[in-house]
Design brief:
Chain lengths: 433, 463, 566
């Protein structure tokens, strides 16, 4: 205990990353379950205000109590005086765990062959030991939606917690089928299609999407009527969306596509979340009116059009929120998911505001994914996903000192930190021996 | 504005010349700001006076000389213009990927002053960028140091004419992929990369001797020695050996960094800066001792094999080992928030404000050989300045105004939205570029074009 | 200099005359040979030069030379009289630089030991020794079209890479004669990179240009030493250096194609650095570089085409957002500025000419009138068609105005030149008279080539080229109809390496004049279906090549060997 405190003070002085438990040679620090009392912090609950000099008790993987006079009986006490407690940060769209080294195709697993592959499961592919997971969680991002990409229906996304040794241990209780809405935008500099071609391609793709949708509807109807259908995993998975069992994540970005997508969703009576929504600010009113929640990002991105104000990607989330859209944020990243808090800071500075930005990476995604009873705020009864930091976790100068996921105390180490420890003062140094 | 300049020039009968490009210089008084000088500490509630493009006074309660506009910066921060030591913004071509050594290529030939990326960089407080050749070749082309004088139409007007020459080198995966695996010529391995460099320098030494011999003989009566062939490629390598050019070397792994350090020692070359340098932390003492330091990403890693064993603490380790360290973008997106990237050295390694800010100002200035002119707020330096709302290392900081040579080129409150300099007369619908940031990293731009148009669709833009 | 030109000119005329004789001798069973080479246009309104208000006169020509212009000329008996009472006569138009009648040279095969970093010059598009005349055909329909638009002389530019070859001055005269006025007029240059080899980019092209220039200078010195002293090692002069010597010696100008402002600046920067004589051609956007052009005294040949107004016409007045309106106004501003550029050149006092390269002959009148209604004076417009290009090409002593002793190149119109209803009645080039029908309203007389359905000849071998982000590519399309089904094959640059690949053509169809078909390309382990669609006009097809996910690129094809009618 003393040792922990000592290392704490050292950390505060040097602002070094903290290995909560000092290591001895050959010892590996594992995530540790138990009863923890986080004592005397400023608790930013997100849903119930900010509470000064407050303690949080974690047991059985849950936040059992939040209060000023909690008993420390049987609990490991962590003095958090001067510290801040935040709920674990949630990234609403990543490829974390699905890729190890982007340029090495053998390690890239977020996309498969075929245009209609909703049966592809992100969850089964998540590598619990991906280096990027350890790198991500010490930044305070405890939970991410990991999403397949590629064709029209590239697969089924899953919410995962960044601790555990099997995908099932990591599973966060939300899955959704991903859809790439037929696009009328250019794919970048290389895309030299004429405007007409783009329109034509878009219409063709839309018709194809509708045909597939109709097919899935027939599948569902026939199945409901008791028909014995031949094995058809793609339609089986899509029919779950139509039946309302699974949400549909619609990746849609250009303004005209967003309007088309709103129209497309109308009357379908399905659970829909728009993702990406880069040009959402152009049609924010319409999105708000359609009451479709949005996961937008990356925030640190370039404008979609040359004529756009330089800061539109930063400001997009704020403009959406102002129009009344429920907004969550994402990085759309793999190895750099740890930057989500910084993306949120940019959204905050350019119009979303700090409070809304914090919600957009905590309670909002929890609500959008239907798991707000477990995630997104520091409240008794919720999962023990939270972070202890020296200050605002969106600020680069703040240090995250503790991360708890599902009640596990996460070792504040990963390869980046271990390399720092080894090489800061390399031995031997310059001299050749 | 452009018409204005042109008319003025025409009026004075000057004609807007090519090399003697008109460079605008401005005067301004910035009042009552927190001045982050970088080299001389922080000054609370202080003023900075700029006259004719140069910082002439720093202090309290300065009064604006007649005709000079004063800007009230109460509650705001002023810092030196941010310098990006690795960028491809403002270039029409990045890679001449067709040979392992292309030292004769000049990025100054292909500068495009109308690239929107320049304005977007200004809006992030960046006043100088190092517009580099890409990393396809072991020895790439000669780079251009740009001053972001937005609105200029003349490439010469945005080239920092008083900056020294620099050249791009590249080690590791990119040159071995392009030439060895792509074209079946050396280098296919990191051994080959070293061989190509050593061969190049040795050939250059012969080339130099050949010309010296000819130039001596030429003057003699009855000379029968004929002129050797001209090669700007070899002449450029000679200039490197003669200390006239700073090498900026794309590198990732510690072994290849150490290799180049040995090569430059053998050829008695002093001016080397490592770029990216993801494993620089492993050879930080050597980098500190023998080179002009490293210019690194704040936190990029894992996008390819040679950066898998990286750490975001790289900059901090290098800094603490005494290497000159800068944070760069290599990206039209990242260049817009280098102040934030610098801030990450506080999360990853706990650097001080001054150390962090130096990584995007005076340190890159040193690596580009322009530290006597820019990179800090000091009397006598060129007036490249940024005014921030919020401390620039805060994640919530918002750049408000950016000045180059005392001329304001970005003003968050006053600028028009559409900054495009050129719009095609036949444009039907403005193109929409989705996922533009994937293409923002342009180190390997033109390489895919070089290989084949059809393949372009499948190639990932990253690094 | 002038003498040299005249000599070349005379030689050309002599050769032309000799060919005449040889081809037709005395009898002509075709009955097409003209009976005289002497013509007189009588009592016409003659505009002798730009700025001349025009006066009634008779103009007499013989053997391709103007014998006189005046009110009281004595006409020889062999003169065929063309009554010009209602007609207007102008100096024949001169195309400062164009590609009419020029075909693409055959692609050079890569040698077996090809290395992309050091390709042979010829493979890398460096062929300054080539002659435009080698790939020029006066019988091309393009030449017919431009002649019909009033052009009588053209500097034809060879097709190819960064240094495609030497240009030539040719008459748009009787196709059966040689029509050459000068074979070595300028060294053509482009910022065009090579595909998959050095120089692969604009930056490489500029470096390579310097390299060739500097080494040519050294070769000249070497050759001088070799010629004057003994014991000198043999110069190993390459065809490139030999061909480039007159450029370095400043005897031959470089004709640089430069469409955009940056290209113009880059070409002028190279000129300043190296010191060669420079002419710029094909200028499209140059508003902001007028000062640079002026101060560098660079002669310019602007593209004889204004931007099309499709985007302007498609702008909707109602039902669009403020943002869209802002876009519209930027495009409109850009469009308006583009139309005013020629007038601004005039205002700056720059005597510019025109280039017909990449322009449409049918649009000439519209283009000129648009420039004039945007501020260009009629005098300057006529000068840009006549005296200015003559001066730039160094042939002022023989062309550009209607004077005794000058070449018999004339344009005869039904009204003053720039009136909208004015039509060209005659074009006289090299003394040959071309008589055009005056259209009443809209008379369509499209001849149907025999044997081709819908009058469209599609079967045969087409040579095509397409501009893609990777540079230009091209190959052959072979089309034939079997059992009524259109099919065949196409060759293209192999994406996986050097050389050409061939693929079968599928889904080919011809509807009206529109040909469309598809083919598969294997690249990077994947297969792409590429579609080509284009409109056929005579032996030319223009359209687009579209690649899924990547877009469309312009494609142009020429029917090089049509199949015999079946």
């Amino acid at each position: 205990m003393k040792r922990i405190l000592k290392s704490f003070c050292a950390a505060l002085l040097a602002l070094l990353p903290v290995v909560a438990v000092a290591q001895i040679d050959g010892e590996f620090v594992k995530p540790r379950n138990g009863k923890f009392l986080l004592k005397n912090a400023t608790v930013v609950t997100v849903t119930k205000g900010t509470l000064k000099n407050t303690s949080v008790l974690l047991e059985n993987g849950k936040i059992s109590q939040v209060g000023t006079t909690l008993s420390s009986e049987g609990a490991e006490v962590i003095d958090c005086t001067g510290m801040f407690i935040y709920p674990g940060i949630i990234d609403g769209g990543t490829r974390l765990g699905l890729v190890e080294v982007s340029s090495v195709p053998e390690t890239v697993d977020y996309s498969d062959v075929g245009n209609v592959t909703p049966n592809m499961q992100a969850l089964t592919t998540v590598n619990p030991n991906s280096e990027a997971i350890g790198v991500t969680r010490v930044s305070g991002v405890t939970t991410v939606l990991t999403v397949p990409t590629g064709g029209l229906f590239p697969g089924t996304a899953a919410l995962i917690n960044l601790n555990g040794y099997t995908p099932d241990q990591m599973y966060g209780g939300f899955k959704a089928v991903a859809m790439t809405f037929p696009s009328s935008g250019r794919r970048g500099r290389f895309d030299r299609r004429s405007d007409e071609d783009i329109k034509k391609d878009g219409e063709k793709a839309m018709k194809e999407a509708n045909d597939i949708w109709e097919n899935a509807k027939s599948y569902l109807e026939l199945k409901k009527s008791g028909a014995e259908l031949t094995y058809y995993p793609e339609m089986d998975q899509l029919s779950k969306v139509i039946a309302g069992e699974l949400s549909l994540l619609i990746e849609v970005n250009s303004a005209s596509d967003i309007l088309n997508a709103i129209k497309w969703v109308e009357g379908k009576n399905i659970k829909v979340i728009f993702t990406g929504v880069a040009e959402g600010w152009r049609v924010a009113e319409q999105i708000a009116k359609a009451k479709i929640p949005v996961v937008t990002g990356p925030i640190q991105d370039l404008p979609t059009r040359g004529s756009d104000r330089y800061d539109t990607p930063y400001a997009n989330a704020g403009m959406l929120a102002k129009a009344g859209v429920k907004v969550a944020l994402r990085t759309d990243e793999e190895e750099n998911v740890r930057n989500l808090p910084f993306h949120a800071a940019f959204a905050a500075a350019y119009g979303l505001g700090k409070e809304e930005a914090l919600k957009a990476v905590t309670i909002n995604p929890a609500e959008i994914f239907g798991v707000a009873d477990q995630y997104g705020s520091v409240e008794a009864g919720k999962r023990a996903n939270l972070i202890v930091s020296t200050g605002d976790p969106f600020e680069t100068r703040s240090q995250i000192h503790h991360v708890f996921i599902d009640g596990y105390r996460i070792p504040m180490s990963n390869r980046h930190i271990r390399l720092y420890q080894e090489f800061l003062e390399r031995s031997p140094g310059l001299k050749t021996n | 504005m452009k018409k204005h300049i042109y008319l003025l020039a025409a009026f004075f009968g000057l004609g807007v010349g090519m090399s003697q490009a008109q460079v605008q210089k401005g005067s301004v008084l910035i009042k009552n700001a927190t001045v982050l000088t970088v080299t001389k500490g922080n000054l609370e509630s202080s003023d900075v006076l700029v006259e004719n493009g140069v910082i002439t006074q720093i202090g309290k309660n300065l009064t604006a000389p007649a005709g000079i506009t004063a800007i009230d910066a109460t509650g705001k921060y002023v810092m030196p213009g941010i310098i990006d030591a690795h960028s491809h913004v403002g270039l029409d071509v990045v890679n001449e990927a067709s040979a392992p050594i292309t030292a004769e290529i000049r990025m100054k030939d292909v500068v495009n002053p109308q690239d929107l990326g320049i304005y977007r960089a200004l809006a992030g407080g960046v006043t100088i960028s190092h517009a580099m050749h890409g990393s396809a070749n072991v020895v790439g082309g000669q780079n251009a140091t740009l001053k972001h004088r937005w609105g200029s139409e003349d490439p010469a007007a945005i080239i920092m004419q008083d900056a020294p020459r620099t050249i791009k080198f590249a080690l590791g995966e990119n040159p071995t992929r392009v030439h060895g695996r792509g074209n079946g010529i050396q280098p296919r391995s990191r051994m080959g990369v070293e061989a190509v460099i050593r061969n190049g320098f040795n050939e250059a030494i012969q080339y130099k001797k050949g010309w010296e011999k000819y130039n001596l003989a030429k003057a003699q009566k009855g000379n029968i020695l004929t002129p050797p062939a001209y090669s700007e490629r070899l002449q450029t390598l000679v200039d490197i050996l003669d200390g006239k050019i700073i090498i900026h070397c794309h590198s990732y792994r510690a072994d290849e960094i150490y290799m180049l350090i040995n090569v430059i020692k053998d050829f008695n070359i002093k001016k080397v800066v490592f770029q990216h340098t993801n494993e620089g932390f492993k050879v930080a003492p050597e980098i500190a001792e023998y080179t002009m330091g490293a210019s690194v990403f704040a936190d990029w890693w894992a996008y390819k094999m040679e950066v898998y064993y990286s750490t975001a603490y790289n900059a901090a380790i290098l800094q603490k080992n005494g290497a000159i360290t800068s944070i760069n973008s290599d990206s039209a997106e990242l260049i817009r928030h280098l102040y934030h990237e610098a801030g990450k050295t506080q999360r990853y390694g706990g650097l001080t404000d001054e150390e962090a800010l130096a990584m995007i100002t005076i340190n890159p200035a040193k690596q580009l050989g322009i530290e006597d002119k820019v990179g800090s707020i000091e009397v006598g330096k060129q007036a490249d300045l940024v005014i921030f709302e919020g401390h620039p290392l805060s994640s919530y900081a918002v750049p408000q105004m950016t000045f180059v040579d005392g001329v304001k080129y970005f003003d968050r409150k006053a600028d028009k939205e559409d900054q495009r300099q050129f719009v095609a007369a036949t444009e039907m619908v403005e193109p929409i570029f989705l996922r533009a940031n994937e293409e923002a990293h342009r180190c390997m731009q033109d390489v895919d074009k070089y290989f084949e148009a059809f393949q372009g669709a499948f190639m990932n833009g990253k690094q | 200099m002038n003498k040299q030109f005249l000599k070349a000119g005379m030689l050309g005329l002599l050769v032309a005359g000799w060919l005449n004789q040889a081809a037709w001798a005395q009898s002509d069973p075709t009955g097409k040979r003209r009976v005289t080479s002497t013509y007189a246009i009588t009592n016409a309104t003659v505009v002798k030069a730009p700025g001349d208000p025009g006066s009634k006169a008779t103009i007499l020509i013989k053997d391709g030379i103007i014998l006189g212009v005046g009110a009281s000329l004595t006409l020889p008996k062999e003169a065929k009289v063309i009554p010009g009472d209602s007609l207007y006569v102008y100096p024949g138009f001169i195309d400062g630089a164009g590609t009419m009648g020029i075909s693409k040279p055959k692609e050079v095969e890569r040698p077996k030991d090809f290395v992309s970093s050091t390709p042979p010059d010829e493979v890398a598009g460096i062929t300054p020794w080539r002659m435009a005349t080698d790939t020029y055909s006066g019988a091309s329909t393009q030449v017919d079209d431009w002649r019909k638009a009033g052009f009588t002389l053209s500097q034809v530019v060879p097709d190819g890479g960064m240094l495609p070859g030497k240009t030539a001055l040719v008459f748009l005269g009787e196709p059966k004669t040689t029509n050459i006025l000068k074979v070595n007029a300028a060294a053509a240059a482009n910022f065009r990179s090579s595909r998959g080899m050095y120089p692969a980019t604009l930056a490489g092209v500029m470096a390579k240009f310097r390299d060739i220039y500097q080494n040519t200078a050294l070769v000249i010195e070497h050759e001088r030493m070799f010629a004057t002293s003994a014991g000198i090692k043999r110069p190993q002069t390459s065809p490139t250096h030999t061909a480039f010597m007159p450029v370095v010696q400043k005897q031959l100008p470089v004709l640089f194609a430069a469409g955009s402002e940056l290209e113009i600046r880059r070409a002028i920067a190279l000129q300043k650095e190296l010191g060669f004589k420079l002419i710029l051609m094909g200028l499209e956007n140059y508003e902001s570089v007028i000062g640079v052009i002026k101060s560098s005294n660079t002669p310019v040949l602007i593209k004889l085409q204004v931007p099309d107004d499709k985007s302007i016409k498609s702008q909707k007045a109602e039902g669009v957002t403020e943002a869209t309106k802002a876009q519209y106004s930027r495009v409109k501003e850009s469009y308006d500025n583009a139309l005013k550029q020629a007038a601004q050149l005039e205002k700056a006092g720059i005597p510019f000419g025109f280039s017909t390269a990449d322009a449409k002959a049918a649009d000439v009148q519209k283009t000129l009138n648009t420039m004039i209604s945007n501020g260009l004076s009629e005098k300057a417009a006529l000068a840009a068609l006549t005296t200015n290009p003559a001066a730039i090409l160094g042939i002022s002593s023989m062309a550009g105005t209607l004077e005794k002793g000058k070449l018999a190149n004339l344009v005869v119109t039904t009204d003053t030149l720039f009136k909208e209803e004015s039509q060209i009645k005659y074009v006289i080039s090299d003394g040959y008279v071309f008589d055009y029908e005056i259209k009443k309203k809209s008379v369509k007389t499209e001849a149907k080539p025999e044997g081709a359905p819908n009058g469209v000849q599609v079967e045969g071998v087409w040579e095509y080229s397409s501009e893609t982000p990777a540079g230009s590519s091209g190959g052959e399309i072979t089309l034939k109809r079997e059992n009524g089904v259109l099919g065949g094959s196409i060759t293209f640059d192999d994406p996986s390496g050097a050389g050409k690949a061939t693929a079968p053509i599928k889904n080919a169809s011809l509807s009206g004049k529109t040909l469309s078909f598809e083919f598969d390309v294997a690249a990077g382990g994947m297969s792409l279906t590429v579609a080509i669609s284009g409109e056929i006009n005579g032996k030319i097809m223009e359209g687009s090549l579209s690649v899924p996910q990547m877009g469309s690129f312009p494609v142009k094809a020429t029917l090089s060997s049509p199949s015999q009618a079946n």
